[in-house]
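One such given next:

>
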Amino acid sequence: MFVWTLKGEVWLIYNGEIHPTLAIDIKEEVGRWGDNGMIGTAADPNFSSNGYLYLYYTVDGLYQSSFGTQQYDPNFTEGNSATMGRITRYTLNTVDFQFAFPNSRFILLGESAGDGIPNACPSHTIGSLVFGEDGSLLISSGDGNTWVLNDHNLGFNGAGPLPPFAWDVALQRGIMTPGENLGAYRAQYLDG
């Protein structure tokens, strides 16, 4: 059995004992604030033979905006800012499932700013992963918007009434387009 933490750890439990070494550790990449974090995991329907484990999480804002640049510092995090949801697949060792192969990380959704699930609020963001009977990987997500009132009725043009809603940062970083800046109505946006 595998268990995971919101901060980005995947642990193997075997014979009722937690394995002392993490199977997957992506804490540096996962944004953990509000309702965000690593929310969903799913084992591939053929997991016992291919070792595929899928992870669904909010990317830390600093990691999303500057990983791989001189401005990036792994000792800092940027919560309560605009970022995105990401889905990755890891391949675990199928002999004992105690670890993921180091170079097996494959990004299915959210490789760059414009192709992830927009997230500009501490709540209403990413959700669950589940496999359908036909083998399709299904995801759920929220609107990435404030949970207080309908922002468009208040004239906020996509900005929620309470900080730290960061629609302007999401637009600046290319996480969402002006057409996607619909506030709570983003959950029903079909043109993406």
In short: The CA atoms of residues 63 and 70 lie 12 Å apart. The first strand starts at residue 2 and ends at 4.
